[in-house]
Amino acid sequence: MADQKKNIELFFEKELLSPYNYFLQIKGKQLRFKIIFAFNHWLQLPTEKLRDLVDIINMLYASSLMCDDIQDGSNIRGVSPAAHCIYGVPLTINASIQALLLVLQRASNLSSEACKVIIEEYLEAIRGQGIEIYWRDNFICPTEEQFRKMLERKSCRFLMLIVRFIQLFSENKTDYTKLIVILGTYLQIHDDYCNLNHQKGLEGWPESEDEKAFIETRFCEDITEGKFTLPIIHAMKTPYGEQILNILRQRTRDVDLKHYCVSLLEKAGSLQYTRDALTELNREARDEITRLGGNSKLEAILDQFLEW
């Protein structure tokens, strides 16, 4: 009986979680997790304990991104096929849900508060994702204020989840909300900008030997997706807005047309507007880090962002 139970568990882990295990092999810059290790300058958890907690959150993050690829119609993750292209949409969704429930199971073994934090913050992040999908699929261009409010949910709350989760096991109970909102907003706008105009800055950018394949497969994916990002939203208020909107509506995969769309965004001043917004967010983040007592590791990460 014990052997039969063990075989069933191995089946769950190997076969049913195949899309998840495959996903974990795909490498990226993992900037969010570098930020978390930088936060440990303040939280002061033992390295081994921190890694155990980050491993739980990494499972949640991978589960989320597997679904993201399906929702975005993206067939590529890094330079590799997305998990659902290998294992199919049904099994990938199933593995994603299974991974999420395993996260909650592991968190519940730590404390009831750990589960509560994950549910509260992840629910808000999912709602933010839903708002963005709703805008995209109904072709509704939000205002910049609405866009930033959405980011506070989609991008910032996942970062908040990680910090709150780890902070449960730290004696440091400082409120880092303001810094997390700045960093979460910065991460997403930076990634959106790089998708259009500086692909090497993308969080999913691979090792140097895979760069050519990455560029060929993922050039300006956000235009193909029809996604409303800060440069697009800004451009809608310019004379170039109508052309850009028409290109976006086509969900084009034509590289020349996407190059033309980027050129329109440059002429509209929308790329410069986004660069200025990123510069301001970088400054705000540094000011808040200083107010919190300084953190050389976080400042070093912010230095890396300036390479765009």
UniProtKB/TrEMBL annotation:
Pfam family name, one: polyprenyl_synt
GO molecular function, one term: prenyltransferase activity
Keyword Amino-acid biosynthesis (UniProt): no
Taxonomic superkingdom: Eukaryota
Stored InterPro entries: Isoprenoid_synthase_dom_sf (IPR008949), Polyprenyl_synt (IPR000092)
GO annotation, biological process: isoprenoid biosynthetic process; pheromone biosynthetic process
Keyword Magnesium tagged: yes
Keywords: Magnesium, Metal-binding, Transferase
Homology family: Belongs to the FPP/GGPP synthase family.
Descriptive protein name: Geranylgeranyl pyrophosphate synthase
